[in-house]
Every structure is written in C-alpha cells, then in structure tokens.
Amino acid sequence: MALLSAVATAQAQFLGVAAGDATSTSVVLWTRAVDAAAPASLALTVDVATDAAFVNVVASAVTSTDANADWTAKTVVAGLSPATRHWYRFSTAGSTSGVGTFRTAPAASSSAPVRFAFTGDCDGLMRPYALASVFPGLGLDFFVFLGDTMYETASSGSLAAALTGTVPTPSATGATPTQLRADYSRKYREQFLSVNPGGQNGLQPLFAARSEEHTSELQSPCNLVCRL
Predict the structure, then answer these.
(1) 66 contacts 108 by C-beta, under 8 angstroms
(2) How far apart are CA 228 and CA 215, in angstroms?
(3) CA 21 to CA 3: how far, in whole Å?
(4) What average pLDDT does the structure give for the chain?
(5) Which residues contact 102 (CB under 8 A, 6 or more apart)?
(6) What b/e sequence results for 93-129 when a residue is b if at least 16 CB atoms lie within 10 Å of its CB, and e otherwise?
(7) pLDDT tens for residues 38-69?
(8) Three-class SS state of 71
C-alpha cells in the first residue's frame, strides 16, 4: 500500500471505525476523519493488536483519507493469525480514533462455530439504537447491518435519499448515479450521529417499566437477533 503524496497535517475529527471482509489472515479497515475547519486529505496510520491496550501490535499500515469518498480511508491489513480477536485504531498528527475490534476467520482447514447477528429497518429518527448497546456483550464473530428503510425515511438531521424517478434505473427526472452514491454514503454516516443523545425518547418509559425478567429476555442472543 502506498501513502498518497498530497496529504496535510491537521486536527482531525474521527467519525467511527469499521472492519469487514475478514479472512483467516486479513481484514479491511475503514474510518472517516476530517478537519472541518480546513478539509484536506489526511495521512493515517492504523495499528492492529491482539490486546485492547495495544501492547502487542501485530500489524500496522498507512493510508489516507479521500475527498472523493467523503473523507473516508480504507485499507487492507494482512499477516494476521486465524481465529483470533484483534483490536485496531487509526491515528494522525494529534488525533486518535476510537478502538474497534474484529475476529479473523478460522483457518480454511478447521471446523469452528460462528456467532453472528444482523439487523435492518433502521429509521434515522431512532438514533442511537437502544438494542445495539448489548452487542459488545454477545461475543459476536461478525455483525451485518442491512440499513434497509433508513434510505427512504427522512428524520431530524437526516433527509431521505433522492427519488430515482425510474426504478431501478435512474432517469433524467430523478437522482443520478452520483447523487445516489452520495446519499448512500451520507445515510450510513448519519447512523453515527445521535438524534436524541440519551436514546430514543419514546422508548425511555418502556425500558423503565420493564421487569428484570423481561430485560434478561431482551438481552439474550436469540431474542436479540429475532427482534432486530
């Protein structure tokens, strides 16, 4: 991987990290980082460790944000061990992202159980999503976020995606492919931003009224996947 030459040093603000497409020895890592006061391409370093304190860093890579991709950066990190929990973080001059985690896939020659969950039907008005708070305690190998209705739904701070005019092909009277791509990226980015910092207002009385028995039921892996 090569570091782009046209990069700038700035006080970056990170908006989340993400990992995906993990094989037994590699993973794709993303982040978004931008200095809102002076947007420019930023040189980033990503470190991958086998402990949350980053004492045992097993891989590092360099990348940079891209103005044409909404100031996101994407890189592949290889040379990892199979079936291993890893932690990762991005950094640039004076700024460090939050810490993410992923698990590499088992070796191709092995037989191993896989634990995962998925969800969709995300109305942006509900950000942040209450059930997501239990994910860290489930020991998932991976999670699939389908997005679903968040594209068509307008809510506070999150406009609906542009109409295409003709389905499935965009037309001269609807959104162009460029507009659709921009909307797609924007709607995903907005999932990191809270509409109600304390959670969805309408759910607070519900959670407050739940008994301990019902709360345990809500947090069980089976009910989590089914109810999402």
Answers:
(1) no
(2) 15
(3) 22
(4) 79
(5) 19, 20, 22, 27, 85, 86, 88, 142
(6) eebebeebebbbbbeeeeeeeeeebebeebbbbbbbb
(7) 889 999 999 999 999 999 999 999 999 999 88
(8) coil
Q: Residue 81: is its pLDDT beyond 90?
A: yes
Q: Specify the amino acid at residue 119.
A: T
Q: Tokens standing for 144?
A: 């699939």
DSSP 102-154: EEPPPPTT------EEEE----GGGPSPGGGGGGGGG--SEEEE--GGGGT--
Look up residue 137 and give its two tokens: 């305690």
Find out whether 103 and 207 touch, Cβ atoms under 8 Å. no
Copy the structure tokens of residue 175: 């959104």
Helices (H) and strands (E) in the chain, counts: 4, 10
The length of the chain, given as a count of residues:
228
Cα radius of gyration rounded to whole Å, the chain: 20
| DSSP string covering 24-46 | SS-EEEEEEEE-TTS---BEEEE
**pLDDT of amino acid 167:** 62
Residue 43 and residue 25: Cα distance in Å, rounded? Answer: 25
For residues 20 and 104, give the distance between their C-alpha atoms in angstroms, rounded to a whole number. Answer: 10
For 20, 26, 50, 78, 140, the CA distances from 23, given in Å and listed in that order, are: 9, 5, 16, 9, 16
What residues have CB less than 8 Å from 65, skipping those under 6 apart?
32, 33, 34, 41, 42, 44, 71, 72, 73
